[in-house]
Amino acid sequence: MQVLVDTSIWIDYFKGAAHSKALDYLIDENLIVSNEIILAELIPYLKLKRQTRLVQLLQTVTTTPLKIDWKEIILLQSKCLSADTNGIGIPDLIIAQNAKQHGSLIYTLDKHFSLLKNVALPLIEWVGTVKNETNHP
To answer: What are the CA-CA distances from residue 97 to residues 23, 55, 68, 116, 130 (Å)?
Structure first.
C-alpha cells in the first residue's frame, strides 16, 4: 500500500527528528507518494534556503494526481463545521481526498487528519499512521 507522506513528516525528517527511521523504511521499500499540494508547501521554502539536494529528492517521489471533487470537499467541510471542528483547512481536505482516491495511507503529525477521521468516519477511515499500520518504527 502506498503512503502519502504529509508535509509535517517531511519537516520532521529534514530535521532528523523522531520519525526519520520510519520514513527511511518507507523510502527504502519504495512505498511513499506525494502530491502537488505537499510539494508546493515544501519546495519554495527549500529553494529559498538553497536546499537544492532536498528539492531534487522530493521531485523524484511519485506524485498522485489531484482530482479535486469539490462537492466532496464541501461535504467534508460542512461535516467538520457541524461537529465544531472548524480548524481544518481546504488544503488538508484536498490531501485527505487525494489519499482516499488513490487508496493511500496518510503519514502525518498533523492532528487535523485525526479530527477528520472522527468527523467523517465513513469517508476517511483510511487515515492512519505508518507506525500503527506497518508495525515499524
So the answer is: 22, 25, 8, 11, 18
Number of other residues whose CB lies within 10 A of the CB of residue 3: 23
Can you read off the three cell numbers belonging to residue 99?
A: 489519499
Stated length of the chain: 137
End-to-end CA separation in angstroms for the chain:
17
Which residues, listed in sequence order, are joined to residue 106 by a DSSP beta bridge? 4
Domains, the chain, ranges and CATH? 3-132 (3.40.50.1010)
Q: Is the pTM of this model over 0.70?
A: yes
What is the pLDDT, as a whole number, of residue 42? Answer: 97
Which distant-in-sequence residues (6+ apart) come within 8 Å of 16 by Cβ? none
Phi, psi of 106 (to 5 degrees): -110, 125
For 114-128, what is each residue's pLDDT tens digit? 777 766 533 333 334
pLDDT in tens, 42-55: 999 999 999 999 99
Cα(107)–Cα(23) distance, integer angstroms: 9
